[in-house]
Amino acid sequence: MFRHRDLRRLTRGLRFRLTATYALFFAVLLFAAAAIFRQRLENVQARQVEETLDGDWKALKGYLRIEWDQELGKYAGSWYYSDEDPDETTIVLDIKKVYVITDLDGNIIQNAVTKELEVSTIFDDIGVDRKEIQAQVKEALAARKPKIFLTEKRGSEGDRYEVRSGLVYAEKHGPPFYVAIGTPLAQNAKILREFTLVYVAIIPSALLLGLFLGWFMAGRALTPVLAVAQAAQRISGSNLKLRIPTRQAGDELDYLILTFNRMIERLEASFQQMRQFSTDVSHELRTPITAIRGQLEVALFTAKTTEQYREAMFNALQDIDRLSQIVRALLLLSQAESGQLVLQKSRLNLCEVVEDLVEQFQIPAEEAGIRLTASLPRDCAVDVDRVQIERMITNLLSNAIKFTPKGGEVKMSIERSGESVAMVVEDTGRGIPTEYLPHIFDRFYRVPGSGTAPSPEQGLGLGLSFVSWIVRAHDGKVDVQSTPGKGTRFTITLPSADVGTVAGEPVAAS
Ligand code: ADP
For ligand 1, what atom is nearest to the CA of residue 460? Predict the structure, then answer.
């Protein structure tokens, strides 16, 4: 059972599969190469046989004469060549071993054995088939052009021969004779057999070598992968600072390591954010809870009159309000950022929305001694979630009023340009020092106060986090410019809904 599982794990491993693929490929390659080589060798051998027979046939026609022998009273073959010419002698002696002449009926007139040489010849081994000769003669006589026959024959012991035969005319007006020559194929067959045997012997060892090589190479290629996996295993939630070292090879694996490291970097950042967030939340909640506790203690131990009780209860209630305000805001923000809050978009005139809100903020602005004005075009259509957009403008306006001293000014304006609508909230308030600007959209972030009223501690530090999320959710952009002591300017850019819909309408040039 255990061994079976072990085997399964091994066969599923990348190293095993790589090696198996490699070995299979190697085997197919070896067999294909063997088949091709063998085929080529066979072709070369066949061509050689053909060339030998061709040469012999030409030589035979050149040196052999078939004439009427007066002494014997019949036709007989004789050879014309010079004894002194060693070349001619060798050629003729060679052909003499492998030829036969018969009449048109297949009766042997002459062959190497019957007459001139006492050596074993091809036709001594394969014999003379009269029926076949008669058939070939018939076919050759019927043919218009001189006909040559090529046949393969087997000797008494199974040796193979290639035979070339046809009709030869003895004299100009004499009768034709049947002549055949042959060449043994045994040597060729032996070479082919030996080649096959050698190859069959080589293939398993080559395959084994290929297998070892494949196993070794796959191992080498996969070792760094295992090292990366081991390094990755050491990284956990508590030591996200660790990184996998790159191998400086600039290959795919390094790219993988780099990607992995970047992913851990992002994880680390969000872990850090989460940790910061929970610290912030507990800190934020502790303040009102401590206050409530204080109020209740006052009510329990020191309050004597009804008036004092009422005051303590009233203060406690106020702190509870603040507590539930924080909890509600946090819940909403986490819903928004986790994508659970779905935008209910509809087409609306942003100018009207802004006008209404500016109207509503006139009372608190007046109370704070601030002049609140708006400069808006007649209409600017946007596809937005009304509730969220109102929340965004409310947050920006209340911040502007909160952080602008008496006698100051808050201005709202909208500008349309091409494909977007830019909404500006500008104040002449205390401004935000440049070093704090990057943090103002963080949750619970409040610019450290200068001690002068109004106290920033009154806010939750969540308003601008909402603004940032709402702008992002509407594919918009938020920009802040601020000069400490002079004022702040928030610019929100949202995509316009007018693009391409109202053809011919003059678009504001600015
Ligand atoms: P809060 O509830 O404290 O207003 P926000 O997230 O809305 O929280 O703002 C974060 C901080 O950014 C504020 O505490 C304040 O210090 C600073 N801030 C925001 N708007 C302005 C402004 N118009 N002028 C000066 N400071 C501002």
Answer: 2
CA atoms 502, 503, 504, 506: torsion sign: positive
- HEC states along 468-509? HHHHHHCCCEEEEEEECCCEEEEEEEEECCCCCCCCCCCCCC
Domains of the chain: 16-191 (3.30.450), 252-336 (1.10.287.130), 344-495 (3.30.565.10)
The 10s digit of each residue's pLDDT in 363-402 is 999 999 999 999 999 888 999 999 999 999 999 999 999 9
> Which residue among 401, 430, 440, 470 is best mutated to probe the pocket of ligand 1, counting the most ligand atoms within 8 A of its Cβ?
440
Helix (H, G, I), strand (E, B) or coil at 121: coil
Q: Does the C-beta of 399 come closer than 6 Å to ligand 1?
A: yes
400 alpha carbon to ligand 1 midpoint, in Å?
Answer: 8
* Mean per-residue pLDDT, 55-80: 82
**With the CA atoms of 62, 65, 66 and 68 taken in that order, what torsion angle do they form, in degrees rounded to the nearest 10?**
160
Does 400 contact ligand 1 (Cβ within 6 A)? yes
pLDDT beyond 70 at 506: no
Question: Is the pLDDT assigned to residue 499 strictly greater than 80?
Answer: no
Tell me what percent of the residues of the chain surpass a pLDDT of 70: 93
Pocket-testing residue among 393, 399, 479, ligand 1, by greatest number of atoms within 8 A of Cβ: 399
pLDDT of 450 > 60? The answer is: no
